[in-house]
Amino acid sequence: MRDLGVLLLFGFLGAWLAVRLGQSVIIGYIVIGAVLGPHALGVIADAALMRALAELGIVLLMFFLGVEFSLERLRRVRAAVLLIGVGELLANLSVGFLVGYALGWSLVERAFLAGIVAMSSSGVVAKLLIEWRRTANPEAEALMGIMIFEDFIAVLYLGVLAGLSGEGARASPAVVSLLKAVAFYALILGLGGKGLARLLTLALRVRSEELFALLWLALIALAGVGASLFGLAPAAGAFLLGMIAPARQSDLGERIYSRLESFRDVFLALFFLTFGTMLEGESLRRVLPLVLLIAPLSILTELVITSSLAFLAGFSGPVALAIGAGMIPRGEYALLYAAFGQQLGLIGSDLFQFTGWYVFAMTLLAPAFMKNARALYRILHRLMPRPVAFAGTLISVTLQPMTMWSVTANSRATSRARLGAARHLLLWGAFVSLFLGALAARSLTERMLLLAIGMMALAGLSRAIRRALEPIREHLDLSRLPTPRADPHSVIAYTAHVASSVPLAALLIAVGWNDLGPWMLLGIPLLALFHFGRAWAWYRAWSRPIPTAPESAASRE
Amino acid sequence: MRDLGVLLLFGFLGAWLAVRLGQSVIIGYIVIGAVLGPHALGVIADAALMRALAELGIVLLMFFLGVEFSLERLRRVRAAVLLIGVGELLANLSVGFLVGYALGWSLVERAFLAGIVAMSSSGVVAKLLIEWRRTANPEAEALMGIMIFEDFIAVLYLGVLAGLSGEGARASPAVVSLLKAVAFYALILGLGGKGLARLLTLALRVRSEELFALLWLALIALAGVGASLFGLAPAAGAFLLGMIAPARQSDLGERIYSRLESFRDVFLALFFLTFGTMLEGESLRRVLPLVLLIAPLSILTELVITSSLAFLAGFSGPVALAIGAGMIPRGEYALLYAAFGQQLGLIGSDLFQFTGWYVFAMTLLAPAFMKNARALYRILHRLMPRPVAFAGTLISVTLQPMTMWSVTANSRATSRARLGAARHLLLWGAFVSLFLGALAARSLTERMLLLAIGMMALAGLSRAIRRALEPIREHLDLSRLPTPRADPHSVIAYTAHVASSVPLAALLIAVGWNDLGPWMLLGIPLLALFHFGRAWAWYRAWSRPIPTAPESAASRE
User: Fold this and answer.
1) What is the ipTM of this complex?
2) Which residue spans within A346-435 are E strands per DSSP?
3) Residues of B whose CB is below 8 A from A213
4) In sequence order, which residues have a C-beta less than 8 Å from that of residue A304 and are 6 or more positions away?
5) What's the number of domains chain A is made of?
6) Residue range B113-152, pLDDT digits in tens
């Protein structure tokens, strides 16, 4: 009780100070934990109780994320958000995988590093936005949408990581465990969901507040235990239970919140504090190079790739950069993956220590970027080469009418478009699986088979993109382009080509990886240069005085 | 986490079933704990985490009792309630002490047994009253008043028990530790209170709900730790913090409730459950005789002595019996004392096991008595010898106008009467200390010194009683007496004699104890017989046709 009291009191002071300094509470917790922990002052010697409560904290956090989350809400998220979310995750996962590859790590460790590096902290971002009263800003809605999507993926990814423990180094463990996790989730949510939900609603009618809290804590803990029996992380089980549990808006949901929210708050604080206690000062020397390598990479990925995706999806430049900066904080998922990996003995002490310092660095730096996004934009805008800017605007003009369609407009056309978007998502998902499969496949035959399947899928994808882009022609806002005139046909074709070339390049890289290794990555700048060149050609063509080309004149009328 | 989940889920089921059967949840928790524990099914093997949380649960419970409690409220409690409370506690403590004495136990174990046997469970009673919708019944208010008083004494007693650990078997440890505890409490509440309260109010302004919960849990845990550094029980420290903390009615108090109440509920459930896990089925054979001896004694004490006191204080017969029956449940304090004693190694395993079964038996039987108090009253009424009934009515007639004065009447007379009551309380308190001192004193000289002091105090007490009774004469409701006429002078004198003879007898017993032992107790029935005889004499005198006695006629006009 002494340890608990001391840890909580200093945790409070640390968090309070962090908030005062415009930082996230997580920074305060980690610092306090590290200072009080056995590797520094040693005030907190035995952390067994704290660790148990911390574990409960992460499970409660995931339960509440599950309650907040709903497939309905995910479906309502704008296409723009999905585009940014998917792209952002792929880019960040790649950073982790590639760095792990470059360091010669095992596949399992690479997978953990990728997850740790990739998942932004929805908790930190949401709290900072509220703290700074920025929830009404244009970037806030997009950020929260991306976070909803990322929460979902983060839980799925947890399933992948859990799967890695069982199979070890057998063939394509990632694919198997991904499928296993998806199957488990689908089973629970699809079949078990309705029956379980009815049972839970019955249980919610318990009159006594005391017994109510007891029951729900028991259910959440047991959902975690159940998931770990299925080879999944406890957090994933709690998330699923949260998805089944009544939504926050209902009376019963309100009751869950009022009774259990402070358990989550306190135990989660203990999670961060305990994580801090496990950091070793000496480890910093060992992992500092890695932190200095990956943290700038992650920040660049967010500022360049995520912001670009946001711009392409139709957000204005400054807002796009604010979205990118908003994705910089790391937190609960990174720490959760690291703690999970260490618990199962899948990752070494260095990766665990790295995670602590990495989360600390990213979350510490994030507020500076988030606050100065506008100034950053001005600098970047000046530095941007004109072909690159024009290429971006070309794609943005095409995508904007598509991605920014409001959900509330429920005409037939939008519903059909949404159906199309769902089909898109499915195709992209299949593609990502193929990509992962190609990376994991050992024999050349397997890779070639996957390449063949991939090419077929790609053909479908390309056709789907063109069909999706067709009805957009009338909505194009060509006045955004700096050229006096532009041909909508060509604008759409350009975007379709770029969109199709990205998965093609990814697939080729995956297939060639085992033979050629990272050299394959050189294809990406080459591809980018090619597209920039094409954009520049269009720019010059449309800037010339009007020729007597009858088609382009007709299309402009 | 598995153990926690299982324990909470089955705890919920057990408690839910207990409530369904009209029992207290405590019954459900203890049974479930015992069944799942290592001594039965063994589902819960390692209870280290649970024990730590359980400790926190009892500390939280005491904190909330402290918040609910206020000296203001204690002062507002009616004199009737104080009379019942003091008498009830003395009687119950005596049961424990005497049984312990008869079994040849050490003073420390006797003190623990007395506390375990004496303290009723305010939690159980309050919950049953709410559950049965009896909170508006006449006995409910009195019961809650007695409980407020008992909570306060129970914490003081905890200080006494804590003091026993340090001094061991040195001279008069009970007195020393009682004084130490009182001094500590007075220090904190008197001097520290105001300054600390201001600090706490500042701390309460923390905006974030998350940090608020963190801070208060930390403060509560550290208050417990602080108290144990001072040689007191952690629970006592938390109670004091609660007394200083803002009252429930304030906004800040509301916030404390909404954030921390479910921590208390869940951790307290864990306390009862863990207590259950520590019960051994085999131990029942060893402690059953003791349970079968003490449980009926306790029930009799409540039904006879507490009910009599309630009747004497002016409650009607059936209500008085309902009050007595309502004091039967045992719970948190008994278990708290037992857990505390075991932790410090002051009590043996048998006393610990006894506590579990005793609490179980008392709490299980209580609802039956509480529900059938009216029927019980009818039986007792028929069995009561007439002299006894008349003596009771005589005292009741005298005390009723005094004890039942409403607090809301704030005339000068009542305020002076209340001042008198406070002085009374002080005198009685001094008397109890003398009584305990006389019991503990080793040498004859010490005892004689105490006797001399006691006699002087008694003289003051006797005068105080007479002076307090004087202004009552006009308010006597003589119509309640079965005799056609009565002399108010004599009625008052009778009560004053009885009231003065009780402490006199107690003091004499205490002084003679070390030499004559329990034989001194024979004085009690003798004293009772003497008083009954005197009452009977008055009855016969007042039932005769009116003589020409001029004084009694004058007083009747």
Assistant:
1) 0.73
2) none
3) 262, 265-266
4) A324
5) 1
6) 999 999 988 878 877 887 777 777 778 888 888 888 888 8
